[in-house]
Amino acid sequence: MIPTGLGPDGHTRCKWCLATDRYIHYHDHEWGFPVADDRRLFEKISLEAFQSGLSWYTILQKRENFRAAFAQFDFHAVARFTEADVQRLLQDAGIVRHRGKIEAVIHNASRALEMVQQEGSLAAFFWRFAPEKSDAGIALQAQTPESQALAKALKKRGWKFVGPTTAYAFMQSMGMVNDHAPDCMTRSLVDAAKQAFQAPQ
Asked: Is 157 among the domain residues?
């Protein structure tokens, strides 16, 4: 079972979020709620790539800096970034200065433009991989058959820094699965949001 604990307000939450108020707010208001906005989807899959080898809290602390550095993750704008932008980003102490990850986000922005042309939207593509049923929230897992399929499909389309573990973290956060613990106070809120959500076609 996914461990839980009591928050400062006495409510039961997933234990991973209890370290700081910033984490609790992210857990309560973002993590697991379904998202169909293409910019937010591109932002999250980009930040998940930056998280590789780091903690999500490190990335969350720097998220506003990342947004400023990457044109609010407007992939139309990011796709136009040049080597001068790469150099600028490598000097930006507010983000993770990893050339490979920076170049991957810029590269993936062009792949995102292609995906919109082919699929209509990023959301229409990504939500295709949401499982109809899963054991989400019951046991800790790093990847699933659906995240493996998503990573494989992205790799086939030329995307970089998106393996099955990164893909699963993306699916968790964007609401494609509800991985809140069964007794977490937010799980029922996410379930209700998913019931009202219409997956993009």
From this structure: no
Which residue bears the tokens 């809140």?
A: 180
**Is 15 inside a domain boundary?**
no
**What is d(CA 143, CA 146) in angstroms, rounded to the nearest whole number?**
8
Active site residue 23: no
**pLDDT by residue (tens digit) across 57-67?**
999 999 999 99
Q: How big is the chain, counted in residues? A: 201
- pLDDT tens digit sequence for 123-158: 999 999 999 876 555 667 889 999 999 999 999 999
Catalytic residue among 48, 127, 146, 159: 48
Q: Identify whether 26 is a catalytic site residue.
A: yes
**CATH code, domain carrying 100:** 1.10.340.30
**Structural domain harbouring 89:** 37-127
Scanning 21-98, the segments in alpha helix (DSSP H) are: 21-29, 38-51, 56-61, 63-69, 75-78, 83-90
Total tally of structural domains belonging to the chain:
1
Per the domain annotation, does 26 fall within a domain?
Answer: no
56 labelled catalytic: yes
* Sequence-ordered list of residues with C-beta below 8 angstroms from that of 142, at least 6 positions apart, any chain: 165, 168
Which of 16, 26, 30, 57 is catalytic? The answer is 26
Given a contact cutoff of 8 angstroms between Cβ atoms, the answer to whether 128 and 157 are in contact is no
DSSP 3-state assignment of 12? strand
